[in-house]
Amino acid sequence: MAWANQGMQALIPVINRVQDAFSQLGTNVSFELPQIAVVGGQSAGKSSVLENFVGKDFLPRGSGIVTRRPLILQLIQDPNEYGEFLHKKGHRYVDFDEVRQEIENETDRVTGQNKGISAHPINLRVYSPNVLNLTLIDLPGLTKVPVGDQPVDIEQQIREMIMTFISRETCLILAVTPANSDLATSDALKLAKEVDPQGLRTIGVLTKLDLMDDGTDARDILENKLLPLRRGYVGVVNRGQKDIMGRKNITAALDAERKFFFAHPSYRHMADRLGTTYLQKTLNQQLTNHIRDTLPTLRDTLQKRLFAMEREVADYKNYAPNDPSRQTKALMQMVTQFNADIERSIEGSSAKLVSTNELSGGARINRLFHERFPFEIVKMEFDEKEMRREIQYAIRNIHGIRVGLFTPDMAFEAIAKKQIARLKEPSLKCVDLVVNELAMVVRRCADGMSRYPRLRDELERLVVSFTREREQVAKQQITLLIEYELAYMNTNHEDFIGFSNAEAKATQGQSVKNVLGNQVIRKGWLSVNISFVRGSKDGWFVLKADTLNWYRDDSEKEKKYMLPLDGLRLRDLEAGFMSRAFRFALFYPDGKNVYKDYKQLEVGCNNLDEVDAWKASFLRAGVYPEKVKTPEDESSPDSDEASIDPLLERQVETIGNLVDSYMKIVTKTIKDIVPKAIMHLIVNKVSEFVKEELLMNLYQSGDADKLMEESQLEAQKREEMLRMYNACKEALRIIAEVNMSSIGETMPPSLPPTDYRPTGPSPIPPVPRPAPAPPGHGQAPAPLVPM
């Protein structure tokens, strides 16, 4: 076995030790180590090739898919012969039948006993005097039809598992293909070609050469003339199923393999470059050269990873979770940060921290005050026809049996108070919306304390409880505001129309209309749902005081339609079965078409806030929501209105003008004072509580030590960071033992086993640097053409 530079062979144990440095610390290797992946279809002979390397029967066999988990096989030259699993470190298996049984047991433990698969590898090290240092990964063979409890996409799962290994640039691909099948249909070569189109990382292995039909051979393939690879092909002859069942000795099988090649007329001229022994030597040389070439990159990767972790690890090195001073400092820092986050969320963020995805905190509260709250008020606005009927009944009931010659002011007060009382519901709803938004802000800011779950929960409970207390106070005060308005009707207000003006206006039949001129109220994109078949499409809409203009895009050059707003109404729609958009419809109450042959125009947005903003804008333009009719409304008789006398009609019109004028004054006051009350009684008080009283309440609520208990996830994260840091340091130390500057061509003495087994650091002899070459030493390199 001393056919090559033993210093070069020492590179393979170096990588094995790097692998062990991470495995022993329980850390997955997240970067690419040089390795050889064995790829092939089912029954291609992969397992037989590996067993021939070891000289023992140790791999599971059977029908169907046998290899169901990746097997990382590390072959290490050693005077003793035994196997050792990473998951049972320290337990030596001298009987290789027990090795096979342990592979089957460990596979079943993870995948079950009914042909399931898993990407979690099994690590096996085989020490033997009959092997060369080599590390291979035996991957499951490609299958076409699922069996047992395998999923229907088993072929895709195995393919993805194989691709995760062979797509790495540091991975050599050992493509195993049976010679008695068409090479052009080889699963292994097809996969290798996808990730290595020039064949620079692929080593071809032809099995079952002894089973080819008479008169056929694989000479052109083995001479690298057909589907050439940069690293060439090696042919092997494995034991047949009869030999395996008969427990034929592998040593005898290797002798038979050698005799076959020397006796075959097509292979005897290259027999010294064929067979399992030559394949093992070739793989040893190729992997050693590959490790040598990739070692500098691996060193750089480890150093970058180490430097990236330095800062966090520095905080963790002397970390004492139960140190009282550390807990106090951490508690102060957490509360201070929470206070800053709350203030930033409500008052506004700096340009560096501002969210560009959605409104939150103070911006959402601002929208509630100026868009949602006015919209809720307008939604409850009285129906003119209903109000006229109420005024008529009020006037008649006040006059009683007498015929009224004058308009009674008591009717005005009764109707006005009824309308004022209706303002209570949207005002209290505004409080609920703001409190809910504050609770969301508190929850988001508290998420930064996930490291201390008990502290996070307690802090959130205290702030939300205080917010709910302030909610009740605010609702009481806002209810008082409504009661203030009901307690005294100030008809001397400077903006009140007065009785004489209201009567003159009623006589002249004038109507007050809020004229905004040609002002643009809102612009933006809306999805338009034309029909179920055609689906929805986006359009650019410009809402003005008297029209809604629909353009093809935001350049506003091509107008598709203009919809007059006079008489238009708005109704909410439920989200469609195939759509998540929030929609509303525009329509005319009299049933005439809105757009072409459509009775209503359905528009919407993906964001509920945007829909509310559009509704509020339509309200400014005088497009009001549809009034939901109740059974009482539908059953109310209209005969009284049909027979109303002119005097009563003029009185009804006068009272209506008075109520309309007074309600504008009250509504304006409520729209202004309710947001101010909410800010003073809830938002500002919550901010003061967080800033001044939260820390004291946290200390009063319970044991500070319990509050500062770390989450299990955070402790695991810290331990994982320290393990990765120590693993990187150990890996760099191992790699540093390789002296790349003193490579020699002489053959140093053989390495003692302890030099490449992970029992401690030891000097590594220098390594030579021959260029990669195909297995045929005497042949010229094959042309680099696709496979």
TrEMBL record:
Transmembrane segments: none annotated. One of its GO terms (molecular function) is GTP binding. InterPro entries: Dynamin, Dynamin_GTPase, Dynamin_GTPase_CS, Dynamin_N, Dynamin_stalk, G_DYNAMIN_dom, GED, GED_dom. It comes from the Eukaryota. Residues 760-775 have a biased composition (Pro residues). Residues 652-743 form the GED domain. Keywords: Cytoplasm, Cytoskeleton, Endocytosis, GTP-binding, Hydrolase, Microtubule, Motor protein, Nucleotide-binding. Residues 519-623 form the PH domain. It is found in: Cytoplasm, Cytoskeleton. Gene3D superfamilies: Dynamin, middle domain (1.20.120.1240), P-loop containing nucleotide triphosphate hydrolases (3.40.50.300), Pleckstrin-homology domain (PH domain)/Phosphotyrosine-binding domain (PTB) (2.30.29.30). It is an enzyme of class 3 (hydrolase). SMART domains: DYNc, GED, PH. Residues 776-787 have a biased composition (Low complexity). One of its GO terms (biological process) is synaptic vesicle budding from presynaptic endocytic zone membrane. GO terms for cellular component: cytoplasm; microtubule; plasma membrane; presynapse; spindle. Residues 30-296 form the Dynamin-type G domain. It catalyses: GTP + H2O = GDP + phosphate + H(+). The keyword Ribosomal protein does not apply. The keyword Cytoplasm applies. Its main location: cytoplasm. Its EC number is 3.6.5.5. Belongs to the TRAFAC class dynamin-like GTPase superfamily. Dynamin/Fzo/YdjA family. PANTHER family: DYNAMIN. This is Dynamin. The lineage of its organism: Eukaryota, Metazoa, Ecdysozoa, Nematoda, Chromadorea.
